[in-house]
Every structure is written in C-alpha cells, then in structure tokens.
Design brief:
By secondary structure, the chain is α+β, with helices and mostly antiparallel strands. The protein is built from 8 helices and 13 strands. The strands form 3 sheets. Strands 7-8-9-10-11-6-12 form a 7-stranded mixed beta sheet, sandwiched between helices.
Amino acid sequence: MLSQNEVDIIVKGIYLSWTTWGKMRGEKLVLDDISYVKSKNDKGFERIFSVSIENNHEFRVQQMISFIKAGILPDSILIMPNTKPENLAEILSSKGFIINNNDPCMLLYLDNYEAKETEYTDFEIIRVTEKKQLEDWLNIINIALLGCELITCEQLNDVMEADNTNFYLGLLKGKPVTTCLTITEGDTSVLEMVATLKEYRCKGFASALINKALIDLHNNGIKTISLRAEADGVNVYKKLGFKECFKRIVASCDWKNIYKKSCSCYIEN
C-alpha cells in the first residue's frame, strides 16, 4: 500500500526535475499556485508541473485554460495526487483536454538495492564532464527519447554544471549507446533521461548504466530515488527493484486543431 511519505517523495522528485530544467537558459520558471516551465524560444521543455489552487477554483481553472489558449502557459499539465482541485482532470477533460494516465511513477529505497554485475567486458560507463561527452549524451537523447532537437547543448551544460546533477554515458566498444541523469536534493534523488539507441535496446546496457548511478547515489548517502516511467521501460525498472506507486496523469490539448475543427463544424452547420 502506498504511504503519504512515498507520495511526497515522488512529488518532490517531480518538483526537483522541473525546477532544474527551469534553470536552463531560455526557460521561464514560475513557482506559484500554478507552477510551470515555459520555453522562451521554442528550444526547451514546457509543462505546468504543479497546480495547487486553494480558492476560487472555477475562476482560477478557467483563467489557467484561457492563458493556455493564449500561449502564455504551457499546453500540458501534470496532475498528481496532491493536485488541487482534486477533480482537475475531469474538469479539463470536459474542456477538450486529452487525458493520458498510462505511465507510472516509481520509487526505490536505495538501502534495499542489490548491486548488479555488469555482463559486458567491452561496455564502459563514464561520468559526463566535458563538452564532447555532453554532445554525445545529448545526441542519444535527441534520437532515442525526444525525437527532435528540443534542447541545446548550451542549455544542457547549465544543468551539468549544477552541484546536484550527475550525467552518465554508456559506451559499447567506444560508441555512445545509452544515457541517464540523476538529480539530488537532501537524501532523495530523481532519475531522468534514460535513453538507449534503438539497435542497442533489450541488451542490458541501460540497466547497467542505471545500476552504476544507483550505486553512486547509495555511496553518497542518498536514501530514495523516484522516476516517471514510460510504459515500455517499466519492466526494466522493476527488475532493478523499483515499485510502481501511482499513474501520473498528463492533460494536454492542441488548441489550433480544436479551433480548426470548431470552425469547420460551424461552417458545416
């Protein structure tokens, strides 16, 4: 059974992730009852990652929707167990948002983690500290995870230079094939940007890389680590000892297409 403490750890991890991305150049980070990261030039991450509206629910939610339509706010919202109002997903669904709740948030207690043996003698894991390594790291992210050049190496360098981040790169016979990143605060951490080139998947490389990151965290006194998994990565994390805690909900909407459809319906009618 999921405890409130476990929910709090995962929520803290999400907050840690998005506030870290929000410190990149070209990003706007706002921390309020509606907290979000917004790209200033379409190069970067965007999301409303926390909604905690205590009063005037109806007005504030409608205002948020209006700001999304106007492009002032990101057009996707992360809805968590601590989101207020609690029925936000239902409200947004009625307003035309697409609700996705397929992917879980997961958690691991590092004191219970059993380190795994690496099977490949020609597989090397390095900590990314130099520009060329960072370029290789980002290239895998762009190809295998994002599907486009969503962030720049300069933006990513801002994250790499932070005191609480560790970038890992896995190389097979010298070729960069897999990546991950950990961000820490206090005695907890979050795992981010796990990606492997398509032709090297299902061979244990990502697991070996994550294993190294988890060992480093435990050796540095970190007690817990959380992550937001994609559906196809859940089994990898389960084998490492992570447990599913709850499904994260993402509400998103393409307002341009909705506007086109509504205009088309109006003309036809």
